[in-house]
Amino acid sequence: MHKSKKGLEIILFAVAAVLAVLFFFPVYFSLISAFKSNGEILRNAMALPSSLYLESFKYLLTKTDFPKAMLNSLILTTVSILFMVLIIPMAAYAIERTGKKWTNFVYIYYLSGMMIPFQVYMIPLFKEMRTFGFYGTLTAPILIYISGSVGMGVLLYTSFIKGIPAEIEEAASIDGCSRIRTFWQIVFPLLGPCTASMVVLQGLGIWNDFLMPSLVLHSNNRTMIVEIFKFVGELASQWDMVFAGTRI
Amino acid sequence: MPNANTLGVTTNTKAAAKKKTWLSFSVLFILPSFILYTLFVIYPTLNSFNLSFTNWDGVSDEIHYIGFDNFVEMFHSERVYNALKNTVILSVALVILENILAIILAMLVDQVRWFKNLLRSIFYFPVLLSGIVMGFVWAIIFNYNFGVISQLLDRIGLSAYKIDWLGNPNYALIAILITTVWKGAGYYMIIYLAGLQGIPPELHEAAAIDGASRWQQFRHITFPLLAGAMTVCVMLSMIGALKIFDQIAVMTDGGPGFATETLTYIVYKVGFGELRQGYGTALSLVLFILILIVSLIQVKLLRKREVQM
Fold first, then answer.
1. A235 touching chain B per CB within 8 A
2. Terminal CA-CA length for chain B
3. CB contact (8 A) between residue A26 and residue B125
4. Per-residue pLDDT tens over the stretch A138-180
5. Which residues, in sequence order, are CB contacts of B221 under 8 Å at separation 6+?
6. pTM over 0.90
7. What is the distance in angstroms between the Cα of A206 and the nearest Cα belonging to chain B?
8. Which residue in chain A has the smallest CA separation from B104?
9. Continuous segment of H or E residues that includes residue B54
10. CA distances (Å), origin B289, targets A21, A122, B294
């Protein structure tokens, strides 16, 4: 009995190890490839780099728009996230605590947006951005990201606010605290865990997004992911650049 | 501060004033998100109904209404049927494969004794990487001439079995499928893992004392109790499958021919590649309706299951 349990454990571990190798391989492969020249990748994709080839990194940082693209990605992500965690908890709090018919309607109105995939309204949105004159600037993706996250965000925050006892706020209001101050000084800090998961989820999504920035940004104002995409098309598949780009 | 002027008033008007500040406060708090959301999600969505009746190219200022022509063309287009077929194949295959693999991974990470955390990180890591970047990596792995798989087969003398994964219409969709499963499974694994850890160990102990085999324990305890996690995962993977884009853009660009075009991809290709945005929006409405139907069916199934339990 004892022996068979040990055997099973070893088998389970072996299976897990094999799967882990399979899962990790593409990551390992892109890692080693970042330090190889284009020729070396094409000759021998699997081998470890023969020498530490850093030319691709040098080229990327000095001769291309890559640093600017990185900065763009960073600005886009931080600004969007900042506005998201200001606006969405505010709305969620008002919806959850007011509890009137019209706030219920707003809630359903927000949630219905979760069912609409970006591709459905992408073309009219693109047209709208041109009309407003946001097209090509960083403002456009920021506005689109914030608006697009409202449905999911309000769902997350309202369910979280439900779990916060209303007595805390009543106590604050008896002490003469205004609604706005109650929210910012008492409720908002309590939403920390929810905000953290919002930041991670949305931040990752925005940082890695390709479709949207490739549509609404000018070619001299790309984000990092769009810039990486460009290396394959325009520079006739400079794989060394691609891999180096992905490692930064 | 809105409350400051209510201080010295009699109780009755004070209550009314309080109600009023409460209302203005709610409106104030909801307004910013309401404006943005209406302007940049709801309005363009409604506008797509309007645009779908035009032959707008996306660039010119002139927009001509052409009635139902876009929809008529769509229903006669082989390409659209093919994209619909690909979308359905990908969605069904993805939902099944991702969920099975995710359950296996979750059980392994839950049961294995050594390197638990390392294993979990390795399985989860692909989720964090961008679809574009990982699409590139897999494009090289699958490459016919110098790809990793081809080089491996060359080395062990099986060159005859090399497959042009991305260039052959029969295999390109499979390559996309493998990439997507690899990228997504870790995400669902985390949800299943949470579900597994919520199952009280006493249940398994009691079953073991009653002489239930490991398979019976899985079949009658673990699996039914994972139902909650499963509903979430199936729904998320289904939505994810309908929206799949990055991998296709990088690995095949919808090709070879139209072999890997999905509905989401065709909307993008027609709208921005071929500059037929009127037709593109008409197609996007079909996608919208498809997603609506799928969600409604899932909600219905979900309810049914809840009744049973």
1. no
2. 51
3. no
4. 888 999 999 999 988 998 899 888 888 888 888 888 888 888 8
5. B199, B203, B204, B207
6. no
7. 10
8. A16
9. none
10. 41, 16, 9
